Records
---
Amino acid sequence: MSTGVRCEFVTDARGIQIEMVGSVDSSPVDVEVDGVRAIRQQILEGSNLFELTLPEGEHLVAIWWPQFGMTSVGLFSLSDASSVRSNGEQRPRWLSYGSSITQCRTADGPSETWPALVARKNAWDLTCLGFGSECHLDDVVARHLRDTKGEMISLCIGINIYGAASLSRRTLGPRLVGFIDRIRERQPTIPIAVISPIFSGTRESTPNNVGLTLDGVRGVVVHAVQALQSSGDDATHLIDGRDLFSLEDDPKLMPDGLHPNQEGYALMAERIAPRLRAVYDAALAG
């Protein structure tokens, strides 16, 4: 699964042809030309041939690969091209870690996940680490974030830990502190926004197999961030997930009671973009 992965280049080609193999649940491919979506191509199970005619002249092309499903890319060709070069634009790199709510399977397309919308709004270069059901503060992810140069990190923490009961009230706080300390080994000043769980219906007050409610998970996350801040880490910040999606929001925006739909993700992006921008700008200001 390739959430957030895209291919960007500048070309004067008149056409693009891509051979792909999709799975039964593959999300579509989005292609943007000069920042505007030109086509959204559904990917079917098995072999697919994708073709797009480009307007005359030189254009910036961004191909967003499916955010869900197993999709492989075969032959990738450009027709009538005299020039192809990488996009030389330098944007701040944002590393976004989270669960399926960050992966955004239920978004209409890969360019409209909430991380993609935020990256476009804030002019950031997105690296999305949205792992469906697998956001458990694993050390391999902490080491990857530590070793990947960036200018901004966000961590959406809690919903998978609650659902799988993978950490308890005793172990969640230390694990989160240790996760961030691992990142700080090589990126001591990078701004980190820790985002607690968004609102999620009955999970808020229903204990899981280790006795934690989702609201209890949120409380442990808050306490861990406060502990880091009190020990001198002024580059780690807290964003309350309920400010992004709350009890007051229309339940139709979260049809399954867990994952927002496209309208819900757009609302999340609208709310979180300025909050993340404020964290980033505060770090720049010193």
---
Amino acid sequence: MTGFKHPEFLVETDWLDQHLGDVVVLDCTTHLIPDPKITYVVKPGREDFEKGHIPGAQFCDVSRDVSDTTQKFNFMRQKPADFAAAMRRFGISNDTKVVTYSTANPWWATRVWWLLRSFGHDNAAVLNGGWQKWAAEGRTVETGPGTARAAGDFVVRKERNLMVGKDEVKAAIGDAGVCTLNALLASQHTGTGGNSYGRPGRIAGSVNLPAAHLLDPATNTFLPPDELRQRLGAVGALDRPVIAYCGGGIAASADAFILTMLGHTDVRIYDASLSEWAKDETLPMEVG
């Protein structure tokens, strides 16, 4: 079996249990509550966090702490100075190892990992299996609001171009040299079910590998590297540049995360995703 090219971006529960004093752990839990009028309501997972979290973890409100709340769309990437300030508040410095996890879907954890990577912080990892695996193994749990850490001194030393806007996505339509990859469910890709972000369906010409299909549903862990490589290869995402998208740049981060772990060096996320695209009648979509 061929492993990940970058296994350092994924840590196991055993490792984390032995290194809790050496890392900053961020619980990134967020829930999207369906609402037909506005697609969904964002519910930060602080209540889940206070009921139980990994010892020493801090709660990261993805919708506010690490997103630009001045933008029209949810979960948009912040300006470097704002992101750096958020990291300092969590006690993160440039030499800090950060571990992200979620009690909900793991793509909330991969989203924060992707943001860290986009702002040049490579010393970060996602907890494989997340809270579900940690709790199932009977590991130590804390309750309550968590304990704030002393401020860190994180600064953005390097920015990577890991996000794109609608113009880059539009330019990729019809270009066989670019893979536009939808991480939403198959029913959303075909326009037959699930949340619609304005118009049903997918960006014209895009292919589909749902973020949920990267996981073993029994354990919430990512599938073995060979299986992930096969699934991504089957949709043509391994041998050409990839633009990953979803409803708002969250589930797409799971596909982007795994591609990066497998060694892909040209993966970007359409940050506003269908929250922008599906509402603009001038931008082409497909169903079926």
